[in-house]
Amino acid sequence: MNGQIFKMNIIGCGKAARTVAQAWIQTGRVEVQAVCNRSLSSAEDAIRFLGQGRPVNSWQEFPRAQLLLMGVPDKAIAPLAAQVAEEGIVHPGMIIFHLSGALDSRVLAPFKRCGAFVASVHPVMTFADPHRAAQEFHRCSCSLEGDPEATHLLANLVRSAGARVLHIEPGVKPLYHAGLVMTCNYLVALLEAGLQALEQAGISREVALSVIQPLVEETLRNCWKWGTAGALTGPIARGDVEIVSQELQILKGSPQLAEIYRSLGRLTLEIARKQSRLSPQEEASLRRILE
Ligand SMILES: NC(=O)c1ccc[n+]([C@@H]2O[C@H](COP(=O)([O-])OP(=O)(O)OC[C@H]3O[C@@H](n4cnc5c(N)ncnc54)[C@H](OP(=O)(O)O)[C@@H]3O)[C@@H](O)[C@H]2O)c1
């Protein structure tokens, strides 16, 4: 990149775009010129956060730039790409990218007809608080795919902000994103399931949260250290058919919790098999009661 500073405009500067833009501004490699949100007051707010650039009412007011970040929600990317590509603000060689984990760069196809290069850059991070997230950006990985002319430059920007680059194929994005949904969103849902069972056992939510915190933290630490097979403990790993059977019996009154227990129990059994501690009889009995 030879110390070049890249000028960037942003359409949709919410939580994710603010974080990425702020992290890149801090590298000294990117300068934000203009931001267009749905409302001018929101664009003004974004500019105050970034500490540079100017808010605009419409992307037609954008000054010329090498980069265009489409930080709008997933469902707005395709309609906006079709609309913006029609309006003569895209020049050949421009690099246009979005931040979605679920969609790939093909959703930006209308820009390619204007000679632009397109990509998706998905930061694998949850951005509830952009102030904190921008400081933590270096800890995340960013998955990139798209035109090589775009991904080459964007990968360099990601790396210069200290984050890791993961190159992926466009076709795998739904599967890739499903994996992340399960590890992030469903982890929250799983904690909720456990808390509901503990509440039914008469433990208040507040107490239950503090009880499970060290358990969850230690389990995660063990997963990072030893992988899932190394971290697994509990009745299924021990082949304790009686305990699993009793627990399923008591969960009959809560069909949703019972379904989660059975479904994840079958996956737990697959992990337990890798530990080679279960006898064939224990494995068969567990499989039967978890069906
Ligand atoms: N949040 C995360 O944790 C996270 C993580 C990784 C990737 N992402 C991806 O980042 C993208 C944005 O998500 P987000 O969470 O940052 O959303 P967000 O906080 O809701 O921000 C979306 C921004 O887009 C603007 N916008 C919406 N429709 C628009 C339109 N038609 N024209 C111009 N601006 C428009 C909104 O403007 P107003 O402010 O005026 O409403 C808002 O500033 C999505 O693709 C998402 O998948 C998010």
Structure overview:
The chain is an alpha/beta fold. The chain contains twelve helices and eight strands. It has an eight-stranded mixed beta sheet with strand order 3-2-1-4-5-6-7-8. The longest helix has 28 residues. NADP nicotinamide-adenine-dinucleotide phosphate binds next to helix 1, helix 3 and strand 6.
Major sheet size, sense and barrel closure: 8 strands, mixed
Fold-level CATH name of the largest domain = Rossmann fold
Q: Can you list the ligands bound to this structure?
A: NADP nicotinamide-adenine-dinucleotide phosphate
- Termini Cα gap: 57 Å
Give the class-level CATH name of the largest domain: Alpha Beta
List segments where confidence is low: pLDDT < 50 over at least 5 consecutive residues.
none
The count of helical stretches stands at 12
**What's the overall geometry?**
elongated
Estimated helix fraction: 40-55%
CATH architecture of the largest domain: 3-Layer(aba) Sandwich
- Side-by-side strand order of the widest sheet: 3-2-1-4-5-6-7-8
What would you say about this model in short?
The protein has 291 residues and is α/β, with parallel strands linked by helices. Helices cover 55% and strands 14% of the residues. The chain has two domains: 6-168, NAD(P)-binding Rossmann-like Domain (Rossmann fold, 3-Layer(aba) Sandwich); 175-290, Orthogonal Bundle (N-(1-d-carboxylethyl)-l-norvaline Dehydrogenase, domain 2).
Task: Pick out its properties.
single chain, 291 residues, alpha/beta, Rossmann fold, N-(1-d-carboxylethyl)-l-norvaline Dehydrogenase, domain 2, 8-stranded mixed sheet, 12 helices, elongated, binds NADP nicotinamide-adenine-dinucleotide phosphate
